[in-house]
Amino acid sequence: MMISKEIGDKEENNTEIITKKDLKKVFWRSLPFEISWNYVRQDHMGFAYSMAPIIEKLYKKNEDRAKALQRHMEFFNITVYFSTLVLGIVTAMEEKNASDPEFETESINSVKASLMGPLSGIGDSLFLGTLRVIAAGIGASLAKNGSILGAILFLLMYNIPAFAIRYYGMMKGYEIGTSLLMQIEKSGLMEKITKSTAILGLMTIGSMIATMVTVHVPLTIGVGHGATKVQGILDGIMPCLLPLGITFIIYYLLGKKINVTYLLIGIAVLSIVCTAFGILSPA
């Protein structure tokens, strides 16, 4: 009720403001959020598609709309149930950007990058690691006895909280984003927050390299008990040195406009060949 009242008050004071109806449009468009997921930028198209009604309303020029859509085609990945919270916050930031020529547009993607890691950790634990397991356990126990209620109960127990969180997150995200931007504007902290969120976003990307890029070298130097593992030497220099190096090489090749499909095929072929000759192995 409080969220509806605050949004309603804004509508009365400014007819150009984002309305609850607009937020509902984003919520509904966010339902197929992961249908276009891919290995390159993951949820970026789902995010841009969800933001399309907001961008269309806020920006009247086609070039401004194009820039906004391009802004949201950057890499983004998050547990889908908390995606609307980020969408709500970003909606408030886009609204501010449309009305303030001095607004730092770089802060939008910085905030997105800083939120996707922590929120994904919470979302995975809450929904995938807890709620889904409990719902599946209860549903399976009924289904085992031949009751169709097992499947129905599983779907209800899992999806009702999931949809409720997504709807509430959309409304609350916009409320948080609006109030936060007003406080920032009064205090002049936008530059510091932009820098801080950019650092946090880079830390998130760094942690993803360490956990998601796996490169292991099984080679040894010497023989018998005195043999030294090459992987141990590399880890002694810097943990995850090879994953970081591989990531920089791929980033460099992407900068040279090499087709992503060719890179993926090249990585697969190189991994198979190096594994066959004992240069690389599963971690």
Blueprint of the fold:
Blueprint (H helix, E strand, L loop, with lengths): L1 H12 L6 H10 L14 H15 L3 H10 L11 H17 L6 H39 L4 H39 L2 H23 L7 E2 L6 E2 H8 L3 H15 L4 H17 L7
Describe this structure in words.
A two-stranded antiparallel ribbon has the order 1-2. The protein is mainly α. The N terminus is likely disordered. It has two domains: 204 residues, no CATH class; 63 residues, no CATH class. The chain is 72% helix and 1% strand.
Structure in a nutshell:
The protein is mostly helical and 283 residues long. Helix content is 72%, strand content 1%. Helix 3 (44-58) packs antiparallel against helix 4 (62-71), helix 5 (83-99) packs antiparallel against helix 6 and helix 5 packs parallel to helix 7.
